[in-house]
Amino acid sequence: MSDTHLPKRAKDLPAPLWMIVDEADVVVHAGDWVDVDLLDRLEARSRRLVAVYGNNDGPALRDRLPEVARADLDGVRLAVVHETGAATGREARCAARFPDTDVLVFGHSHIPWDTVAPTGLRLLNPGSPTDRRRQPHHTFMTAEISDGRLTAASLHRL
């Protein structure tokens, strides 16, 4: 998930997303939490949390979260960052910035994104579960890893 903007855009995460959090082996948040309370609750409910701060996150969140997070998930090299810049040229820019990464999760735009760079880097933006902006739906993503590779990524509409 990304761009939750709690409690400004919603009072809480949608119940279906909390159900996924409770079941997931790993939860990823790509920034713009706004309030540290959600970080505390996600840390308490997640088996493992991989998360970064975003441009709307203040000192309390920046003290606890990195700008870029990296994790090895059963052989899949994951990186998480909030902002990747303009959509034009994103794949090439991110492939150059994250050369030792298999999957990059990012946020900021609130626009779901799923592409593959020429280098094989998979770029995923889950959109926002609470602030759809000009998108038709609030969204989040789930992904599956098997045998050391990403085998599925699904966008979920709320």
Automatic annotation (TrEMBL):
GO terms for molecular function: hydrolase activity; metal ion binding. Its EC number is 3.1.4.-. Residues 1-147 form the Calcineurin-like phosphoesterase domain. Keywords: Metal-binding. It comes from the Bacteria. It is an enzyme of class 3 (hydrolase). InterPro entries: Calcineurin-like_PHP_lpxH, Metallo-depent_PP-like, Phosphodiesterase_MJ0936/Vps29. Its cofactor is a divalent metal cation. Pfam families: Metallophos_2. Coiled coil: none annotated. NCBIfam families: yfcE. Belongs to the metallophosphoesterase superfamily. YfcE family. This is Phosphoesterase.
